[in-house]
User: Which sequence fits this backbone?
């Protein structure tokens, strides 16, 4: 740590989490940018892989992405051939998003990039420490959702 950082901050979990998150965000963003992708792309593709076809609104809820940002990111994914957007037969006002074979390959590539970024971000931790940190962070996040 920076020796200029006040010790009270170095003992404050929320400050440490915020600082760590900023570094993690930068590393993941740079990793995706090098592959011509964005974090929103990964979040949307991961959701489609796990849960199957979904409406844009459902994708927004699953990923925590704002509705207008979902539309913009999906437009990019459609243009690249990673997802298809078709009218919902049950409700013509709604679109259903389906991942394509190219989208599944893209998801696999981005998953590899995420794993490499995690290795860089958490290099100072053992596998057991990483697992424990993930469990603790999931608990904190769950409390606030």
Assistant:
């Amino acid at each position: 740590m920076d020796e200029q950082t006040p010790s009270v901050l170095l003992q404050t979990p929320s400050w440490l989490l915020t600082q760590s998150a900023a570094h993690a965000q930068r590393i993941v963003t740079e990793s995706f940018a090098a592959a011509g992708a964005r974090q929103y792309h990964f979040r949307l593709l991961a959701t489609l892989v796990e849960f199957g076809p979904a409406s844009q609104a459902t994708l927004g809820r699953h990923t925590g992405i704002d509705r207008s940002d979902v539309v913009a990111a999906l437009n990019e994914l459609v243009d690249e051939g990673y997802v298809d957007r078709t009218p919902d037969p049950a409700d013509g006002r709604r679109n259903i998003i389906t991942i394509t074979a190219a989208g599944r390959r893209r998801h696999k590539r981005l998953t590899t990039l995420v794993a490499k970024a995690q290795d860089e971000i958490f290099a100072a931790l053992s596998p057991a420490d990483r697992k424990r940190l993930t469990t603790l962070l999931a608990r904190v996040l769950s409390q606030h959702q």
About this structure: DSSP finds seven helices and three strands in the chain. The mean pLDDT is 95. The two ends are 31 Å apart (CA to CA). Strands lie at 54-55, 83-88, 91-99.
